[in-house]
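tmp note - GNAT family acetyltransferase
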Amino acid sequence: MTAPAPSSAPSPALAIRPFEAGDEPAVVALWQACGLVRPWNDPHKDIARKLTEQPELFLVGTLAGEVAATAMVGFDGHRGWVYYLAVAPGRQRLSLGRRLMQQAEQLLTARGCPKINLMVRSTNSGVIEFYRKLGYAADDAVPLGKRLIPDL
Ligand SMILES: CC(C)(COP(=O)(O)OP(=O)(O)OC[C@H]1O[C@@H](n2cnc3c(N)ncnc32)[C@H](O)[C@@H]1OP(=O)(O)O)[C@@H](O)C(=O)NCCC(=O)NCCS
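out:
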């Protein structure tokens, strides 16, 4: 008997692996397309710094070999952090972001990380809703920061 057709198109097959040196132009282009590059953060310097600390947690998702998604994950011994979560604009709403975050959570859990922290701009209601659907909730804390090394 033939199985019934699925009610919606299946999600594309995302392969997730650590960042490789040749990925840099495509990764930076993806971050620019996703609006994640800020004037005060040089993305090339951000990549170089990440490659000195837990480079195996710098995740790249590919579709048919092409870079389609990223997540820069880290564990500082107390909390896990996720930066540069990005899915190519033409590939959003296909569960790729969810899959990348599931992989990040599995890798952090395997290291004994008890909690993930991440920061989303309060005006970015769509991304907040994405994280809410993945089980994340706002903490009662004010994010503070201090720049130690200017990029520009
Ligand atoms: C945020 C982002 C990574 C989400 O990736 P995605 O692959 O589109 O998300 P998914 O398809 O896995 O969505 C998972 C769930 O969140 C929902 N969702 C995703 N984006 C949403 C949005 N903008 N508004 C409301 N809900 C959203 C989906 O509908 C889905 O819900 P469901 O469980 O009911 O099906 C992607 O939109 C992106 O790259 N945005 C630009 C970069 C960015 O802002 N990154 C975050 C930096 S903090």
